[in-house]
Design goal:
Elements (H helix, E strand, L loop, with lengths): L3 E9 L3 E6 L2 E6 L13 E9 L6 E5 L2 H11 L6 H21 L3 H5 L6 H11 L13 H15 L4 H14 L5 H11 L3 H4 L1
Length: about 200
Amino acid sequence: MYDFVEGEVAFRSATRIVLLAGGIGYDLAVPLGTERGIGRKGNARLFVHLVPGEGEWKLFGFRAAEERDLFRRLLTVNGVGPATALSLLSTLRPEGLARAIAAEDVAALRRVRGIGEKTAQRLLLELRGKVPLPEAEEPREGDRLREDATAALRSLGFGRAEAEAAIESALRRAPPKDLETLVRSILSGSPGAATRA
């Protein structure tokens, strides 16, 4: 029904982006990390998938058509609904999900909220050979720092969304040059840091 929506960014958060197009505000649920590739102002294009429901119809948005197509493929797995599919893409990202399926890594899948042993096994069974591995790409320095900092904070008890928000906030204040400085900066400004440490 819809392939993509392109319009002015009217609102953005870690899990929602509203695009204003043709006088209509399209409220899109998005995987974590999507907002990082979208400016606070100006136009953006997101590939969409519409999920009809009795109570409401919901639009999901993705930066790339391939990510949207992976979301759709996840929905074909018995027991995986839109919320779980979005959680898989938010936690593992498309690349990590493809690698987990190729390696039959049940433990990686079970780290995702809402994924138990049976669902993890079903994902492997039904998606094996259907999710191509991404081409190897050297991560940029800034991306590597974010990923390492996210892993460090999650080991200290932060949730992924909380960690990513704290990292972006710290990078905006004063971009650090190394992982240790970044994590220390976040912990010194986090109200719950003492209880997590």
